Amino acid sequence: MFMRIDHVAIACHDLEEKIALFERIFELTVVAREINEEQGVKEAMLHVVDGDGGGSYIQLLEPLSPDTPVGKFLAKRGEGVHHVAFGVPDVTEAMGEIGGRGVRLLDEKPRHGSMGSSIAFLHPKDVGGMLTELVQARPTDQGHNH
Ligand code: MC0
C-alpha cells in the first residue's frame, strides 16, 4: 500500500530559522512553501530524494496560531517530529482499507496537502503514538516528482 515515505514533518517555532538549519547541516533545498489556513500552518518542503510515485521530503511546520494542531503540539511537547507521511497511490482507497482495520481516521474525506497533494490523517493513538498522514501526490507529480 505504501510507495515511499513522502515526508517527515517537524514542528517548529520559527520556520526561517529551521530552514536555515536544515539547509546548512543537511544541504537540503526548499522546493515549496505554502500557507495552509485549513491546517493552521506555514510550511516549507525540503527535497530529500526522488522515489516511486513522488519525492521524499522534510516538511517544516510553523503554526499560524497557538490554537491549531501544531500550536498545541508545540505547547505540549516542544519542537520535534510532528508526523510521518506515507505516499499511497489512492488516498481514498487507503483510508477505506486502513479504516476497515479499526484505525480512526481524523478526516472523513481527503483534504488539501502540500504541493497539490490529497491527504488524510490517522489517529496517533491507533498507530503506536505516531501521528500518520496518507499522501496521494498531485497527478502531474507522480512518476517524475517535483
Ligand atoms: C497529539 N498527540 C500526538 C500528536 N498530537 N501524538 C503524536 N503525534 C502528534 N503530533 C497525542 C496527545 O499527546 C494526546 O495524547 C492525544 O494525542 C490527543 O491529543 P490532544 O493534545 O488532546 O490534541 P487534540 O485531540 O486536540 O488533537 C490531536 C490530533 C490533532 C492528532 C487529533 O492534532 C489532529 O487532528 N491532527 C491532524 C491534523 C494536523 O496535525 N494538521 C497539521 C499539519 P495523551 O496521551 O496526552 O492523551 S498539516 C500538514 O502537515 C499538511 C499541510 C501536509 O502535510 O501537507
CATH fold field value:
2,3-Dihydroxybiphenyl 1,2-Dioxygenase, domain 1
User: Quaternary status of these chains?
Assistant: single chain
Named at the architecture level, the CATH assignment is Roll
Structural class: alpha+beta
* Ligand roster: (S)-Methylmalonyl-Coenzyme A
Average pLDDT taken over every residue? 95
Helix amount, in percent? 10-25%
Largest sheet: 8 strands, mixed
Rg, nearest Å: 15 Å
**Strand fraction:** 35-45%
Q: How far is the first residue's CA from the last residue's CA?
A: 22 Å
> CATH homologous superfamily - what is it?
2,3-Dihydroxybiphenyl 1,2-Dioxygenase, domain 1
Low-confidence stretches: none
Mind telling me the CATH class?
Answer: Alpha Beta
Within the largest sheet, what's the order of strands?
2-3-4-1-5-8-7-6
Global morphology: globular
Number of DSSP-assigned strands = 8
EC number: 5.1.99.1
Protein name: Methylmalonyl-CoA/ethylmalonyl-CoA epimerase
Organism: Streptosporangium brasiliense
Family: Belongs to the methylmalonyl-CoA epimerase family.
Overview features:
8-stranded mixed beta sheet; 39% strand; binds (S)-Methylmalonyl-Coenzyme A; 146 residues; metal-binding; 2,3-Dihydroxybiphenyl 1,2-Dioxygenase, domain 1; 8 strands; globular; alpha+beta
